[in-house]
Amino acid sequence: MTDAMRDLAVRGLRPALMVGALVLILLVLQALSPVFFEPRNLINVLVQASMLSILALGMTVVMVGGGIDLSLPANMALSAILGSMAMIAADSVLLGCLVMLACGAAIGAFNGFAVARLRMIPFVVTLAMMTVAVALVAYGISRRTWDAPLLGLGLLPLLVTMIFGISAASA
After folding, report:
1. Going by DSSP bridges, is the β-strand pair 156-157/152-153 parallel, antiparallel, or unpaired?
2. How far apart are CA 35 and CA 57, in angstroms?
3. Taking a C-beta distance cutoff of 8 angstroms, is the pair 72, 58 a contact?
4. Per-residue confidence (pLDDT) for residue 23, from 0 to 100
5. How far apart are alpha carbons 163 and 9 in whole angstroms?
């Protein structure tokens, strides 16, 4: 077998192995929890995965540019906390979404300014921002619970619909 044929076989085998592993994982999850494939649970899994997908998309952009951003998860958590507080205080989903976008943009702009203009090390800047954001999140959620609205389009929550759209557009 030539190297080209072996390479072709490996490239064809790798996706099949990944699909097989996914099917195996799903079968194990179904065996462990009979309610796993119920629509309500699947939507919950998709919502959780879509949040991680949004973080992964942001991190992909940063890493393609040769950088690293450790503050992304903490930025997302802080933005969500502040947005939820705004939604509840003003009874406005739109205001909450704007607060989330503003918070994320402000943290990103600060990190970008510190790295690009002040020539600080990205690892140190984003680690420090992560520490500050986590502290603010811990302060913001201490002894409080929020029940912010979950927007949706049909059966799927808006967040899941958005990540499907973004993934399809980038493919």
Report:
1. antiparallel
2. 30
3. yes
4. 92
5. 32
* Per-residue pLDDT tens over the stretch 45-104: 888 888 888 888 888 888 888 888 899 889 999 998 899 889 888 988 899 999 999 999
Give the list of residues 6+ apart from residue 163 with CB closer than 8 angstroms, or none: 49, 50, 53, 54
Q: What does each C-alpha distance from 94 to 80, 91, 150, 161, 163 come to in angstroms?
A: 13, 9, 12, 18, 19
164: left (phi over 0), alpha (psi -120 to 50) or beta: alpha
The single-letter code of the amino acid at 124 is: V
pLDDT tens digits for range 13-46: 778 888 889 899 989 988 998 898 898 888 888 8
Please identify which residue in the block is written with the tokens 């973080």: 55
Amino acid at 129: M
Residue whose structure tokens are 């119920």: 38
- Token pair of 156 as six digits: 């799927």
Q: Which residues contact 159 (CB under 8 A, 6 or more apart)?
A: 47, 50, 51, 54
Nearest to 83 by CA among 103, 99, 102: 99
